[in-house]
Sequence to fold (159 residues):
Amino acid sequence: MWRTTEGSTGRLIQLCIGYFVFYVITGVSVKYFTGNPAQGYPGMKEIEYLVYSTVGGSLIALSVAIALRWYRLKSNRRIVWGKFSFPSEVLYIIPSGVCTAVVIPTTTLMYLLPISVMVAMVGDSNWQRNGNSTLYLSRRRDSYCVASSEWPPRSKKLS
Fold:
């Protein structure tokens, strides 16, 4: 990739491209590993894939942190608590790690849905904006809420 400076538009574009590439890799790998074995895919169960991907992702992230020696970074400020001294960054690194520990499995579970979440969200918003579909939805809802003795509903006006 091209060289950019911290905080520049070029750096933002690099991060967006990287995010998109890994988003696609993650989505494709879920569908591949949980695919039908009769079609030549590994055929893992969803929860099995969740465990392997979470452990694998954690090990990769830990390996990168150790390889790049991120544990040796100097702290801006040290906090002393009794006999213990630790970097002030721990105060936001720990909550960030806990949140990441929740986000990674839930994101993986989201990829395990039978339909792409992005397609479902975009499809749903387009469906709701379409005048005919919305009218159909309201008619269908009215038909479910009407007592069976009033079928077809004479008192309800479809609009």
Summary: Residues 131-144 have pLDDT under 50 and may be disordered.
